[in-house]
Amino acid sequence: MLTKRSKSGETTVACAEDLKWRQLDRRLRAIEQPAWTISLAQSRWRQCSKSVCRCDAVHRSLNCWRSGLTALTADLIVPIDIYTIDLGTNKLRTLHKSTFKGMRTLSELDMFDNHVEYLPSGLFESLVNLRILRLQRNYLEEIDSEAFRHTKKLFHVDLSNNFLYTLPERLFANNTYLETIDLSNNQIVYIPSDSFVGLRSLLILDLSNNKIQQIQNGTFHLKSLQMLKLSNNQINNITESAFESLSCLETLLLDKNGLRYIPNDLFSHLFSLTFLDLSKNNIMSILGVEFRNLGYLRNLDLKDNLISELPDNAFANCSSLEKLDLSRNKLKYLNESSFHGLGNMTSLIFSENQIYEIHFKTFAMLKNLTTLYLDINMLPSLPSRTFDYMPKLANVKLSNNPWHCDCHALYISAWVRLNEMKIWDYSPTCVSPWYLEGHFLKKLKFPELCAGQWASMVNLSPRLPMQQLLALNVTVNRKPQESMEEIQELREEFKSLITPFVEGTKSLKEKLRILKNDLSNSNDIVSELKSQIAKQQQWNWMNNIEIEVYLKLATSRHAH
Asked: pLDDT digits over 65-108, tens only?
């Protein structure tokens, strides 16, 4: 079965038998097709000018663009020593095989945007100096394997927007000067391994918007190729050595396919690659070895996939990487070493993920980063110093996160307030607690965020504006496996034990005394308190709970 798409977008399905009859019909019509008159006469250019087409003797060109031609009849006089012919945007369905007979000087032929269904064998036989051939936007379903045998000087072929469903073996075997081939927007399902054999000068190959499902070894023996476009196909399998001959490749587009994973060595021979697009696939994971030899890669697009985590040093060998787009994935956590070795990074996009936590040193190595998008995620807060390692940061998106506006939000609130001109989207707003919902983070300071009484010391920055310690309070919170009744009992037991415990611990008493005048060691107090508690045999039940330590603060004086 063969699916055919019309120019209006409609699709029809034809069986092999129908296709065979159509092929026969086209061959018969090509034989019966009239042919224009090819002239050697001295008056050939003057005679040419009398037709509906426009002739230019100076440039030796024939322009029949948009002339309403349905056939090339004998009353059209064409000089044999023509250089360029433009037959674009007409209604030609087929051509007689002698249409270009003897035109050995022809270097450019345009037949784009017609209704051409069939190219008879030998049509281009005389075009030994043809360099540019444009056949896009026609109805071609197949091409004879000998079609380009004699056009040895051809360097540009455009067959895009046709209905080609396969390519003959060795179709371009004699076209060693070809630099550009455009086969995009066809119906190609399969590429024979030797379709592009011998193309030692080819620089650009466009196979995008087809129906290719697999890429086999040996398909691309193209040592000069610089750009390969495979976008918007149905590729779900690429053999590991499919690209091993493409040592000069600079741009590889594999977006809008069905890839679920990246073979470890798929890109290992692409030493010159600078742009790699893997967006809009079904990639579920990255192991960290897939990009190890891409030292010149500057732009990596991984958006619209299913990636849920990034391993340590995932892109460590991509030392030239400047832009990384991971938007619209399923990332949840960014660890400390995911982006090590990326000192040249300028743009990092994480929009529309599920990120709820970021290590405060995640971006510590990105000294040249200017653009960071964290919008539309699940971030309730950001740890202190998260943005402090990026002195060039200029464009930041933070909106549409569930910002929880308590003491944990002091850092991000202060940063947004001091760097308001760097926020490129809507200013972030609080989602919780309920009494601060909808408030702009930038407008909230210590009294509003900490309610002037209690400040959590779990991740508190020593630089926060706090002056005087009034009291120490320690509480416990339920982990998911503990019932509320069990937690209530633990809280009561904890309350009865904590006061004598602190009073009986000399080191803690001394640190608490010092803490009243100097809050810089507050995190040490918390750490030691938890450590001392863990040593108590009678409190082994605390393994199943979370400890939170709070300082009660005076609000009458604040540091600025």
From this structure: 999 999 999 999 999 999 999 999 999 998 999 999 999 999 99
Largest CA distance in the chain: 118
Q: What is the C-alpha R_g of the chain?
A: 35
Sign of CA pseudo-dihedral 388, 393, 399, 401 = negative
**554 neighbors 470 (Cβ within 8 angstroms):** yes
pLDDT for the residue 424: 87
Q: Which amino acid is residue 338, in one-letter code?
A: S
Tokens of 42: 């001295």
- For residue 79, the cross-strand partners are 39
Nearest to 430 by CA among 453, 399, 461: 399
Between 114 and 240, where is the model more confident? Answer: 114
Q: What does the alpha-carbon distance between residue 350 and residue 4 come to, in Å, rounded to a whole number? A: 40
3-state secondary structure of 438: coil
Residue 338: is it exposed, middle or buried by C-beta count within 10 angstroms (0-12/13-18/19+)?
buried
Where are the alpha helices (H) located in 504-548, listed in sequence order?
506-515, 522-534
Q: Tell me if 216 sits within 8 A of 196, measured CB to CB.
A: no
Structure tokens at 419: 């760097």
Q: Is 255 left (phi over 0), alpha (psi -120 to 50) or beta?
A: beta
pLDDT tens for 196-205 read: 998 999 999 9
Question: Looking at the DSSP assignment, which residues form a beta bridge with residue 180?
Answer: 156, 204
Pick from 24-33, 122-131, 136-145: least confident: 24-33
Count the neighbouring beta carbons within 10 Å of the beta carbon of residue 305.
23
DSSP codes of every residue in 227-260: EEE--SS---EE-TTTTTT-TT--EEE--SS---
Instruction: Encode pLDDT of 522-540 as tens digits.
Output: 555 555 555 555 554 344 4
Q: Tokens in use for 218?
A: 């040996």
What H or E segment, with its residue span, contains residue 552?
strand 545-553
Residue 179 to residues 110, 153, 269, 506, 553: CA-CA distances in angstroms?
17, 10, 22, 81, 73
Of 16-25, 153-162, 244-253, 538-547, least confident by mean pLDDT is 538-547
Q: What local confidence, expressed as pLDDT, does residue 450 receive?
A: 84
Contact 118, 139 (CB under 8 A): no
Helix (H) or strand (E) holding 488: helix 484-503
Tokens of 559: 């540091």
Q: Which of 164, 184, 81, 77 is nearest to 119 (CA)?
A: 164
Instruction: State whether the Cα torsion 71-74-79-80 is positive or negative.
Output: positive
Four-residue CA torsion sign, 255, 257, 262, 265? negative
Instruction: Judge contact between 231 and 253, C-beta under 8 A.
Output: yes
Minimal CA–CA distance to 466: which of 516, 415, 412, 404?
516
Does the structural domain 294-451 have CATH classification 3.20.20.70? no
Residues of CATH 3.80.10.10 domain(s) within the chain? 294-451
Q: How many CB atoms within 10 Å of residue 185?
A: 21
Which helix (H) or strand (E) covers residue 413, if one does?
Answer: helix 410-418
On the question of a cis peptide bond just before residue 120, with omega within 30 degrees of 0, the verdict is no
Neighbours of 492 (CB within 10 A): 10
